[in-house]
Amino acid sequence: MSSSLQSLRGFADILPEASARWRKVEERLRRTVTTYGYEEIRFPLLERTELFARSIGEVTDIVEKEMYTFADRNGESLTLRPEGTAGCVRAALQHGLVHGGQSRLWYMGPMFRYERPQKGRYRQFHQIGAEVFGADGPDIDAEMILMTGRMLRAIGLTDVRLELNSLGTPAARSAYREQLQAYLRAHYDELDDDARRRLDTNPLRVLDSKNPAMKGVIDGAPSLLDALDDESAAHFAALRRWLDDAGQPYTINERLVRGLDYYTRTVFEWVSDRLGAQGTVLAGGRYDGLVAQLGGRPTPAIGFAAGLERLVSLVEDSGEPAPVRGADAYLVVAGDAVRGEALRLAERLRDRLPALRLQANSGGGSFKSQFKRADRSGARYALIVAEDELAAGRVGVKDLRDGGEQQQLDEGTLVERLAALAARRREDTERGG
Ligand code: ATP
Ligand code: MG
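YS: structure for the whole thing
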């Protein structure tokens, strides 16, 4: 295949072997958010560029250099969503889900960022995220943090740690911003190019630098927590108390800022030490100003997003058995004369056993080649439809794992046998898969 027809760099295909694992992770995450009363929202992959520029902020990595932006045939500037919050808030505002009580929404799907592809960092990646509108108190912050911890446990991750910080109100932050700028200017010689560039536009982002050479300067910077306004400080103290009461460990990371401009007060991250530099698996926080910024009435809000590639790779590395793949049974057809009858039998079985994975042979072939395909399908049983047995109301059944003799079963017994098999496979899938 010519390389020009292969997938784009940073855009991965998820093949059947991996997709079974993905589906399991997605299903468990989905189940957990649902148990907290969140409802799913689906919004477009494509929005006007202005939506992201206005909500994420002009001087962020995402808007400055990571967006897939292009003009459509009408000359309108459009952007593939780089994250979910902007689109979620837009949709919720447009359809009246933001005002008039609280709402709790979750979403899942692909996001697009033009970044340098590397382990844990792709150009198309997937997130599950959730947003709560209209809840102001630290109780919802605490609940969301506990929920995200439960989500990670639900997929078997127990070695992730929680980091916490507060960004305060925009007013407190702008006072801190000046203090930080003065500090960074005094250390100008030690700053890398990125930091120098951000010094004037977005100095808080300097704290988020991933350059090890910057660690010394960053460690010495004034603390954002010391600059908190009274209300944010009280909010943060209450949140910490709730987490302590719930027995949820955390560390305060005064350098924790988010890549997006719209955050206020609480920010949190779940971090794994098993992913190298790309250690953040889930990140969230409060963004009390965003709804008003996008034209709604001032509405407090909090949300999170988790990167599925990073979660799936952690689950895979933790040695959990891969989900059971393949069929339960494979239908072998002995000759053209019974092909129609075999198809009808397969449909009857599917009617009676909706959970059964039944793969019927397609395209004829000798007995031997059909059995080969049956083996390859992963099926436990081969079902054999042949003329004489059919006339006697029987179907041949051969257990492909124990190498036992073929049995002739009537259809009722066959259904019972297959029902038990499908139930067992389902249990395995639930447990391991
Ligand atoms: P980072 O600091 O790693 O660039 P970010 O601050 O840009 O992360 P967010 O916008 O907060 O990330 O996204 C939330 C989560 O989505 C991240 O913690 C990560 O798990 C995942 N994520 C972000 N960008 C990518 C990417 N390019 N590829 C894969 N996962 C990603
Ligand atoms: Mg980023």
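YS: worth flagging: The radius of gyration is 28 Å.
IM: good catch. Also The chain has two domains: 3-168+228-317, 329-431.
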